[in-house]
Amino acid sequence: MKSLKTCLLSIFLLTISFSVLGQTNKNLDDPKNWEVHNREVDFDNGVIHLNGKPGDGLLWLKGSDFQNGTIELDIKGKNKTGASFVGVAFNGKDNSIFDAVYFRPFNFQNPNKKEHMVQYIAMPHLDWKTLRENHPGKYETHIDPAPAPDDWFHVKLEIHYPKVDVYVDGSNTPTFTVEEQINVSGHGKIGLWVGEGSEGWFKNISIKRNTMDDYTHILMDVAHDQVFWNDPKSMDLENEKISRVYMMTEELYKTARAINATVDYAKTEIDSKMLSDIDILYIHIPKKQYTEKEVKAIHKFIDGGGSLFIIMDSEYWSSLSDTNVNDLIAPYGIQYGDAIPDKLPGGHTIKGEIHNEPLKISYHEARKVIGGTPFVYGDELGKAYPAATYVKTKKGGKLVVMGEAMVSLYMTSWEGVDDYQCQEFMQDVFNWLK
Fold first, then answer.
1. Which of 82, 62, 57, 61 is nearest to 71 (CA)?
2. pLDDT tens digit at each of 434 positions of the chain
C-alpha cells in the first residue's frame, strides 16, 4: 500500500519530471529516453521520424506512467490513401495492449471519407474495424476545419480518466471526445504511434501530468490459475471464456468508476514491489499454490495498511488442497472451512459497516468462513453459516473474506431469480476496502 511519504514523493518527482518535459522538451529529443517497436526512428533537429513498414509501429517514452493530464504535439503524415495513420498511444502495458488516438491525413480533404479523419482504438481486440462495425460513428469523426493532408497539424489530448478530449489546430472546442476509455486500467505508458505501412513525423511534444486526482488502485491476481477472472486483453479471441470475461470486466469497470478506482492485473508472482503502489489486492478462486515469498509479501502489504478481497467457493470450482489460501488469512483470525449445507439459491447481506441496507445477492453452494465479523448469509439456514466476513487490523489493513463466488461474478440471474444486487454489493465492498 502507498504510504503518505511514498505518495508525496512520487507526486513531487513526477511533477518535476513531466513539467520539465512539457516546458523544455529537451529530454524528448534524446533517443535514450525512448524505446522503439517495429520501426526505425530518426531524431533530427527536434523532429522525430518513424519510417514506414508492415505492421504498427510504436515509440514509447521510457518510464512513463500517465493517467490524467495534457499531451500536446505537432504531427505530420502523408496524403497517401490507406497508408498514413499517425497518432498518440496511451494506457500502454506492452506492444500489443494500449489505447490510441490517431489520424488519417489522406481523408482530411476527402468529402466521402470525412467522418473517418480521427479515430480512437483500444488494442488488441478493439481495433478500428471492430469499433466501426459495432459502434458506428462513436469512436471516429471529422475535423472542422480539416488540416492540409501533407502539412503539420497540432494536436492536444486532454485526458481525465475515463474521458479524452481531442483538440486540433488550436480549436477552443474538442474536435472529438471519447466519453469512456474502453479499459479498467486507465493508466500506462505513452508513446507515438504509426499504423500499418505508415511513416510519421512528430515534434514540439509537451506532456503535463495532473497528479491531483486521488485514485484507488486495485490489483487483480490472475497468476494462480484463476477459474474465471483474467485480463481480457491478454486472452486470445478464440478463447471460449473471453466473452464471459469481457462481460464481467465491463461490470467491474462500472464498479471501479463508482468508487474512483482503476484496475491492473498481477500476471506474475506477487511481491512487495508489485504491491507497493496499490490499495486493494483482489483474489478470486485461485487453483495454484502461493509461494512462501508471496505469502510474506501479502502479509506485509496488509500489515502496512493494505486491503485484501479474497473469494473462494464450494469444492466444485477449487478445493483447499489446490491452493493454500488459508495461509494468507490465518494471521488475521479467519479460515475457510468446508461446504455450507445450504442448497437453496439466493443469499443476503446484513446492514452494518459495509452495507447501509441489506442486499439481495446471488448465492449457491458456498464455503464456510470462520472468524471475523460476518455480513453475508444464505437464505435457507439463517445465520448458522456465514459466507463472508470482514476484519480490520490495528494498523489500518482491511480484509473481506468470502466463501461465495457468484455475486462477485456479477451473476444477476440464477434459477428463476433475476433481481440480485451484485453491482451494489461489489461497490459497497470495494468502497469499504479503499
1. 61
2. 544 334 433 333 333 334 334 333 447 889 999 999 999 999 999 999 999 999 999 999 999 999 999 999 999 999 999 999 999 999 999 999 999 999 999 999 999 999 999 999 999 999 999 999 999 999 999 999 999 999 999 999 999 999 999 999 999 999 999 999 988 889 999 999 999 999 999 999 999 999 777 899 999 999 999 999 999 999 999 999 999 999 999 999 999 999 999 999 999 999 999 999 999 999 999 999 999 999 999 999 999 999 999 999 988 888 999 999 999 999 999 999 999 998 888 999 999 999 999 999 999 889 999 999 999 999 998 899 999 999 999 889 999 999 999 999 998 877 776 789 999 999 999 999 99
CATH number of the domain that residue 282 is part of: 3.40.50.880
Rounded CA-CA distance 388/309 in Å is: 11
Closest by CA position to 41, among listed 207, 205, 202, 154:
202
Same domain, 248 and 365: yes
H/E element, 199: none
Same domain flag for 203 and 222: no
- Lookup: cell for 273: 514491489
How far does CA 27 lie from the centroid of its chain? 28
Spatial distance between the Cα atoms of 283 and 275, rounded to a whole number of angstroms: 13
Domain boundary among 176, 209, 242: 209
> Do the strands 335-339 and 163-168 form a parallel or antiparallel pair, or are they unpaired?
unpaired
Give the residue from 170, 188, 209 where a domain finishes: 209
Residue found by looking up cell 502489504 in the block: 301
Question: Do 175 and 323 reside in the same domain of the chain?
Answer: no
Residues 164 and 25 in one domain: yes
Q: Domain range holding 70? A: 4-209
Strand partners, 47: 44
Which residues does 4 contact at the CB level (< 8 Å), separation at least 6?
A: none
This prediction's pTM: 0.90
CA dist 92 and 100 (Å) reads 9
Residues 198 and 275 in one domain: no
Report which of 282, 251, 261 is spatially closest to residue 423, judged by C-alpha positions. Answer: 251
Contact of 234 with 409, CB cutoff 8 Å: no
At 83, the amino acid letter reads A
Question: Do 25 and 87 have their domain in common?
Answer: yes
Q: Is 425 helix (H, G, I), strand (E, B) or coil?
A: helix
